[in-house]
Amino acid sequence: MKTSASRTATMSTYRSRTRPPERLRFDAANDAPAPSGEIIHSRDGVPLSIRPIHADDVAALQRGFSHLQPEEVRMRFLHTLSELSAPLAQRLCQLDPEQELAFVLASPAGTAEPEIHGVARAYIDPTTDSAEFALIVQRRFTGQGFGSRLLKRVIAACRARGVQEIWGDVLTENHAMLELCDEFGFRRESVFHDASLTRVRLAL
């Protein structure tokens, strides 16, 4: 039988093999693309940038939210939300770098009134080494691979931080989101307390 000390040593060795050291985890998680981001174009020629969210994106995030249809908001937040208040927008833009990350589909740098057209984010639970994610892209930019690009960034950033699993709750009627998750290899599960939701999980 292993002693308490030997079990502790074994667990320490196991964790060191499965997770990068804290310093490396932090460095990898913040090894983000340049602030200007990756420049791409929509099918109708609109220039866009995929980049990490910035603390000063508050007004751009609110502009983007104002152009969402009520149904789009419900699909993302799982309930109705009539407006994105300044305090909530600030909270969504000013992340805790230890536990949160987010990437946006936004107007390129230098735009007079920039707007955020899509967001993918994750909240990392350091206790379980899992991360809950969420994703939304404005309807005018769906079907062009932008959601896939954003989700890929989030998954890569979570993996760099040593996250073991990424998961999210999706409305069962949100077929487009569920199909996107299928493409990435997420498995679907029922949510026992709410038949309207499907939980998706991806082991990293």
From TrEMBL:
InterPro entries hit by this protein: Acyl_CoA_acyltransferase, GNAT_dom
Pfam family, one: Acetyltransf_1
Matching Gene3D superfamilies: 3.40.630.30
Domain N-acetyltransferase residue range list: 48-204
Region (Disordered): 1-20
Feature: compositional bias, Polar residues: 1-15
Highest taxon listed in the record's lineage: Bacteria
SUPFAM superfamilies: Acyl-CoA N-acyltransferases (Nat)
Protein name: GNAT family N-acetyltransferase
Organism: Tahibacter harae
